[in-house]
Amino acid sequence: MDKGLLAFSGAVLLAISVVAHSQAYPGRPVRLLVGYSPGGGNDIVARIVAARMTEVWGQQMLVENRPGAASNIAAEIAAKAPPDGYTLLLCVIATHGINPALYKKLNFDPIRDFAPITRIGTAPSVLVVHPSFPAKSVREFVAYARSNPGKLSYASGGVGTSLHLSMELLRSMTGINVVHIPYKGVGPASTDLLAGYVPAMFGGLAGLLPNIRAGKLRALGVTSAQRSPTLPDVPTIAESGVAGYEVTSWYGMCAPAAVPKQLVERLNTDVVRALNAADLRQRLADHGVDAAPMTPEEFSGFIKSEMTKWAKVVRNSGASVE
Description:
- Helices cover 45% and strands 20% of the residues.
- The chain has 11 helices and 10 strands.
- The chain has helices at residues 3-24, 41-57, 72-79, 93-102, 138-147, 162-174, 186-195, 205-213, 261-275, 278-285, 296-317; strands at 30-34, 61-65, 87-92, 114-129, 152-156, 178-182, 200-204, 218-222, 248-256, 290-291.
- Helix 2 (41-57) crosses helix 9 and helix 6 crosses helix 11 (296-317).
């Protein structure tokens, strides 16, 4: 048989096989790797989405927690998994935004080793201060910091976390000189903030909301481009005089890079349809997450822009992790 015809026949058979696999998918449980412990924001988002996909498919999507190294462990496992669509990753701002610049060595490449499926949603953070702190707005916070260089401290959940770098971005855009006090997690940082041992921090909106509403913390500004429906009276940092400031934590779904394109498209269609359901959007909103799905191409471009953005912030901050 002619070699050209053989090659063409092989290509046709491969295409038929891929389409058939996509149509039959999933034929067994699908695992969604999460790089954090159960109970946190990442885990909650993953379980909300996984429960709905289980309903949609009539086949389980199982959340598998693989915490450690700011989600790098889970990302490495997912990157090296068989490209059959049965191992997916909750890819987040850490794995596909900050960590490539923060860590001197990663055992995966966020671009080369993954096929983006869709962004799931975004979650703004909020700049909060203890009620005893004199500033009642972002403008007053910046003015205070400028008048007291090196004297204003702030807490974070650790070096290189998105909450640490949120303040570093504010610092670089305003020229303020503030002192970073890293804690081993957001919980201990929040505890000391509530006790008044540190005056300020950036934190996840969902986690801080009860204390904001109780008057135990004062919210100065949210980090998203638009005001949060959850705190409509709190302005964005951008509209408070820091034009162009925007930081949102985000959650997405990624597959190993060699997963067939048709299967990526099938996954995107199924997950996006689920995310567009009003009840699922509300469940996510209840946890401070705005559903914000994308096409695979849009999500790929978004990831690249996030890596570029955070590489600059990490470089300017001097943060580094071995």
